[in-house]
Amino acid sequence: MARKLAAGNWKMNGDLALVDGLATLAGNQSTDAPQIVICPPHTLLAQAAKACENSAVEIGGQDCRAEAKGAYTGDIAASMIAETGATHVIVGHSERRDGHHETNPDIRAKAQAAWAAGLTAILCIGESEAEREGSDTLTIIADQLQASLPDNATAENTVIAYEPIWAIGTGKVPTLAQIIETHDMLRAELTARLGDEGAKITLLYGGSVKPTNAAEIFQAENVNGALVGGASLKPTDFQPIIDALAAS
Ligand code: PGA
Fold first, then answer.
1. 196-235 pLDDT, tens digit each
2. How many domains is the chain built from?
3. Is 5 helix (H, G, I), strand (E, B) or coil?
4. Which of 105, 116, 118, 180 is the most buried (most CB within 10 A)?
5. How far does the centroid of ligand 1 lie from the alpha carbon of residue 196, in Å?
6. Cβ 126 under 6 angstroms from ligand 1
């Protein structure tokens, strides 16, 4: 059985005041809460990890460079993220794939760099609106998974987040039937490729998850949690999503 995870992606938002709120969020969790990972901007990683030390909330980066070190101005290595006390890193978010021209092989290399630094990679995949309107959505997503997920992925070192690009920050969400179809396909692909480990890898849905729709999305058997953008910026929005996941 895959582990449940509520992940928050602050993107280029947040400040020290929001980090202070994390300690409160951590303190509010019951012992049966799902795993919680918050991904603030890199400048806040160390403070966030300190605020959440020995708590129910873990911290992750939003991206890493595939190389271990070197002349890459503005970039950050996975080991640097790990050194802050973070445990996870998002790789292949569509805002990186689109805005920074990252390819599947780039993302594969980033996931391997994350593993080498002892981090769990939260690897994102998802189709564009035009691809969804075409007939081959499932094939496109399966190909993305195949090309960006390195071999020897395990349930320990990898989380997969399915995020339809057209649903991110738009308030548009696929139907439950579409979410079930995609996640069932992803589970089948992971199991075919990785056996028992593939059956245990946590599969997240992401894209306009809100307190109002979380419980419905979590009805899908192969949705083990969510990657939440906008609604992770307010504890009063994020907590009901955590609760809906715990109850699912
Ligand atoms: P959203 O973002 O929840 O604001 O749609 C999700 C994401 O990009 O991970």
1. 999 999 999 999 999 999 999 999 999 999 999 999 999 9
2. 1
3. strand
4. 180
5. 29
6. no
